Amino acid sequence: MESNNKSETAGKVLRCKAAISRIPGEPLVIEDIEVDPPKAWEIRIKILCTSLCHTDITFWKMKAGPAAVFPRIFGHEAVGVVESVGEHVEEFTAGDTVLPVFLPNCNECSDCESQKSNICSIFENNFSPEMPRDGTSRFKDMNGEILHHFLWVSSFSEYTVVDVTHAVKITPEIPVDKACLLGCGVSTGIGAAWKVADVEEGSTVAIFGLGPVGLAVAEGARQRGALKIIAVDLNPEKFDIGKKFGVTDFVNPETCGEKSVSEVIKELTNGVLTIALSASGCIINARSFSK
């Protein structure tokens, strides 16, 4: 089904600017590029705001291996407005405010329908540098050279094309500089506390690593009513920041002396630690810290 709210540029190749990574580890280059119209089950998005994730930097530095694909357009934390839609797209229309997301959700397979999984079993999370359905790119530079996608988002471009399984409609009332963060780190951390760990009121939580995801874990634990939130990190400068997100206690492994981290946590919690999470949102067996 085609949208009744078509834009004037629907179906046309768009010229816009993008930050292109041509050589790993070297500065990105702002260039004019061409963005193809969306194919079936795809939408083309005008990016309003994007942010930088450490994953972008990790892949930017890669000089070898199957994931080291260049030239490419990085970026996967963003918010934008749908410019046009391809055939069979019913979920979105031009003008919708959307988050492009790197984890697909087909809404049909048993994993996507489950409340305990978010790894789609139909669309594999294989870090392909192209579009998920046909393995081709929607980007070209002005010399006609193919520019590769990144995590099916590529938000370091004024316009991008994503599959409908990689987009979520949101209210336009959310400020764009905040909304762009919801596509990765914030949702991962808060989701870990709310859905993965299911933190209960009065719990004692330990978080290993106080980066953006770890801070979001702390915020999620605070929202769920955790009584004590312990952060473990080597960087003491993060401690003041952590307090703003609900952290109550800090453990720096370098200042524990002869005691192990688990011993220090045991002292802080009187031997009762409800749950421990890594900065990636994975649950660590809390029993090992409460023995």
Automatic annotation (TrEMBL):
<dbReference type="InterPro" id="IPR013149">
    <property type="entry name" value="ADH-like_C"/>
</dbReference>
<dbReference type="GO" id="GO:0008270">
    <property type="term" value="F:zinc ion binding"/>
</dbReference>
<dbReference type="GO" id="GO:0046294">
    <property type="term" value="P:formaldehyde catabolic process"/>
</dbReference>
<dbReference type="GO" id="GO:0005829">
    <property type="term" value="C:cytosol"/>
</dbReference>
<dbReference type="Pfam" id="PF00107">
    <property type="entry name" value="ADH_zinc_N"/>
</dbReference>
<feature type="domain" description="Alcohol dehydrogenase-like C-terminal">
    <location>
        <begin position="212"/>
        <end position="281"/>
    </location>
</feature>
<dbReference type="Pfam" id="PF08240">
    <property type="entry name" value="ADH_N"/>
</dbReference>
<dbReference type="InterPro" id="IPR002328">
    <property type="entry name" value="ADH_Zn_CS"/>
</dbReference>
<comment type="subunit">
    <text>Homodimer.</text>
</comment>
<dbReference type="InterPro" id="IPR013154">
    <property type="entry name" value="ADH-like_N"/>
</dbReference>
<keyword id="KW-0520">NAD</keyword>
<dbReference type="GO" id="GO:0051903">
    <property type="term" value="F:S-(hydroxymethyl)glutathione dehydrogenase [NAD(P)+] activity"/>
</dbReference>
<feature type="domain" description="Alcohol dehydrogenase-like N-terminal">
    <location>
        <begin position="42"/>
        <end position="170"/>
    </location>
</feature>
<comment type="similarity">
    <text>Belongs to the zinc-containing alcohol dehydrogenase family. Class-IV subfamily.</text>
</comment>
<keyword id="KW-0862">Zinc</keyword>
<keyword id="KW-0479">Metal-binding</keyword>
<protein>
    <recommendedName>
        <fullName>Alcohol dehydrogenase</fullName>
    </recommendedName>
</protein>
<dbReference type="InterPro" id="IPR036291">
    <property type="entry name" value="NAD(P)-bd_dom_sf"/>
</dbReference>
<keyword id="KW-0560">Oxidoreductase</keyword>
<dbReference type="InterPro" id="IPR011032">
    <property type="entry name" value="GroES-like_sf"/>
</dbReference>
